[in-house]
């Protein structure tokens, strides 16, 4: 493990923000990770996987640890399912493709999500009706105090919409080392999402008879049509969460804005943040080097030389206008650092 100083983080965050880390290292196994953490005892640390969920607003004064701990292992196989363990530095999408090649189903709807295996349970990634919680078996996390590995079962992770215990109660206390998934051999496709059906049909695929490969291809096509490729236009996917508001609040808004969309939840009504932002006039609007994406208002982008502060300022302006028009406070999905 080589400890570098004053390293640009531009290649390591999908927003493409150019800030420096005072100290930086890349780790490829658990021992190297422990070594890096020991080095950082006196300093703050930031663990980066794919860097796809962060907005870096200033130079990082501590140590940035880039997780490159790779490896995939089949831990159990029966006639109907497999349990497969992946180390946290593995690229998420490559893992999805590997599972599809092996005809293991359950994560095809999560194709093309940027980031790593370790980030997946951290924020319970989700798309097109599937979340990590649906295929999750357990994970191993390193306790950063004791440097011992601990196993977390599903309930202990307290998964919610883009939430887990690691973002809340246990924030900063653990490093997710590996994740074990339960995947199917006899697949139960999840293709209720309208866009998936339409895309399959456009390729003359009967949705009832689709393979996991075809569903994955459809998801990739949908994502590519709406979401900017971070390698071309810096971004970190959805910038805000879709807010859940009270039923009373939604009913009032429905009177004032009859075209508002809402999805009923146990605790209220979920409203699409992309719609709210678009209605406030932000969609496709460029502000300096940043802006809201022309095809998906919920995605903020870097046109080349944006600073984290510029992106943050735009996010605050968007929050303000949505609050003023709808009385809804948007909460960022990304971590602003
Ligand atoms: N909408 C607009 N204008 C926009 C964008 C969206 O009116 O500019 C409306 C759409 O018409 C649609 C609704 O909002 O009725 C939902 O839009 P979409 O299907 O594109 O999904 P989303 O709610 O904006 C969420 C996830 C995405 C995930 C998609 C598909 C969140 C915060 N985002 O987006 O996840 O891929 O659903 O399931 O929940 C991510 O988390 O980074 C991410 C990309």
Structure in words:
- By secondary structure, this protein is α+β, with helices and mostly antiparallel strands.
- It has three domains: 4-67, Uridine Diphospho-n-acetylenolpyruvylglucosamine Reductase, domain 2, CATH 3.30.43.10; 72-206 and 214-222, Uridine Diphospho-n-acetylenolpyruvylglucosamine Reductase, domain 3, CATH 3.30.465.10; 234-336, UDP-N-acetylenolpyruvoylglucosamine reductase, C-terminal domain (Uridine Diphospho-n-acetylenolpyruvylglucosamine Reductase, domain 1, Alpha-Beta Complex).
- It contains eight helices and 20 strands.
- It has helices at residues 30-39, 92-101, 119-122, 194-202, 212-226, 247-256, 273-279, 308-326, and strands at residues 4-8, 20-27, 45-48, 54-55, 60-67, 72-77, 81-87, 126-127, 130-131, 136-143, 149-153, 174-184, 234-238, 244-245, 263-265, 268-270, 286-287, 290-292, 299-302, 335-336.
- The strands form six sheets. Strands 6-7-12-10-11 form a five-stranded antiparallel sheet.
- The protein starts with a strand and ends with a strand.
- The mean pLDDT is 96.
- The protein binds uridine-diphosphate-2(N-acetylglucosaminyl) butyric acid.
Helix share, percent: 10-25%
The average pLDDT score comes to 96
Number of strands: 20
**Cofactors and ligands present?**
uridine-diphosphate-2(N-acetylglucosaminyl) butyric acid
Poorly predicted runs: none
User: What's the N-to-C terminus distance?
Assistant: 25 Å
Assigned CATH class of the largest domain: Alpha Beta
Query: Would you list the SSEs in sequence order as H and E?
Result: EEHEEEEEHHEEEEEHHEEHEEHEEEHE
- Rounded to an integer in angstroms, the radius of gyration calculated over CA atoms is 20 Å
Count of DSSP H/I helices:
8
Structural class of the helices, strands and pairings? alpha+beta
Shape: globular
Question: How many independent structural domains?
Answer: 3
The profile of the biggest β sheet is: 5 strands, antiparallel
Strand-residue proportion: 25-35%
């Amino acid at each position: 493990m080589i400890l570098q100083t004053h390293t640009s983080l531009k290649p390591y965050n999908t927003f493409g923000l150019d800030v420096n880390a005072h100290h930086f290292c890349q780790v490829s196994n658990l021992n190297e990770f422990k070594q890096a953490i020991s080095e950082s005892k006196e300093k703050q640390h930031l663990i980066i996987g794919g860097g796809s969920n962060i907005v870096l607003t200033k130079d990082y004064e501590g140590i940035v640890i880039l997780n490159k701990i790779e490896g995939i292992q089949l831990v159990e196989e029966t006639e109907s399912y497999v349990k497969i363990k992946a180390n946290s530095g593995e690229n998420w999408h490559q893992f999805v493709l590997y599972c599809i090649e092996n005809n293991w189903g359950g994560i095809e709807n999560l194709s093309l999500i940027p980031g790593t295996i370790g980030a997946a349970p951290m924020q319970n990634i989700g798309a097109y009706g599937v979340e990590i919680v649906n295929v999750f078996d357990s994970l191993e996390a390193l306790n950063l105090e004791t440097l011992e590995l601990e196993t977390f079962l599903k309930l202990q992770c307290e998964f919610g919409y883009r939430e887990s215990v690691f973002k809340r109660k246990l924030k900063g206390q653990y490093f997710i080392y590996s994740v074990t998934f339960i995947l199917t051999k006899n697949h139960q496709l999840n293709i209720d999402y309208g866009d998936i059906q339409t895309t399959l049909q456009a390729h003359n695929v009967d949705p009832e008879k689709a393979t996991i490969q075809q569903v994955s291809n459809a998801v990739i096509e949908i994502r590519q049509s709406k979401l900017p490729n971070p390698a071309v236009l810096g971004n970190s996917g959805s910038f805000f969460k879709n807010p859940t508001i009270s039923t009373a609040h939604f009913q009032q808004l429905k009177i004032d804005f009859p075209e508002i969309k809402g999805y009923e939840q146990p605790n209220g009504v979920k409203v699409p943040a992309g719609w709210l932002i678009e209605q406030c006039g932000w969609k496709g609007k460029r502000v300096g080097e940043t802006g809201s994406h022309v095809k998906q208002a919920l995605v903020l982008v870097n046109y080349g030389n944006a600073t984290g502060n510029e992106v943050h300022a735009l996010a605050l302006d968007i929050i303000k206008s949505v609050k003023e028009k709808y009385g809804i406070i948007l909460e960022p999905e990304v971590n602003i650092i």
